[in-house]
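Propose amino acids for all 133 sites.
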């Protein structure tokens, strides 16, 4: 994705535990520096290196343009990685279909603010095209 390209969809939000969102990947995934929660300040690790996140452009089943934000090292990244491995894919592809479900709460360093846990499934672009044929 071009350095100057911008995300064209609002952030994908999960309102309730157990909610699954299935959407087609509508453009290349980009990697950007994350920001501190509640601010525009760039987030960094203790050593000063940038915290990164992937922006996945999606088109939902309702035809809406959305962007899935996937923080590096998150349980969401791990769930998507497992779905890719299960599908025999090395990365998300334009035209592929990603399904993500908020399954509950994971274990974190701060019990008062645990991370969300996720499951994911992925259908490669080639498999989507074969199903449509």
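Proposal:
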């Amino acid at each position: 994705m071009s350095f100057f390209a911008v995300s064209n969809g609002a952030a994908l939000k999960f309102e309730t535990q157990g909610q699954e969102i299935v959407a087609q990947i509508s453009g290349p995934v980009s990697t950007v520096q994350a920001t501190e929660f509640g601010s525009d300040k760039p987030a960094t690790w203790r050593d000063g290196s940038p915290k990164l996140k992937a922006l996945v452009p999606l088109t939902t089943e309702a035809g809406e343009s959305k962007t899935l934000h996937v923080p590096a090292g998150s349980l969401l990244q791990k769930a998507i990685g497992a779905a890719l491995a299960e599908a025999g894919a090395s990365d998300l592809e334009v035209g592929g279909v990603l399904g993500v479900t908020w399954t509950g709460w994971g274990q974190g360093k701060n019990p008062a603010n645990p991370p969300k846990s996720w499951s994911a499934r992925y259908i490669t672009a080639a498999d989507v095209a074969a199903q449509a044929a």
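The CA atoms of residues 23 and 62 lie 9 Å apart. Residues 10-28+56-132 form one domain.
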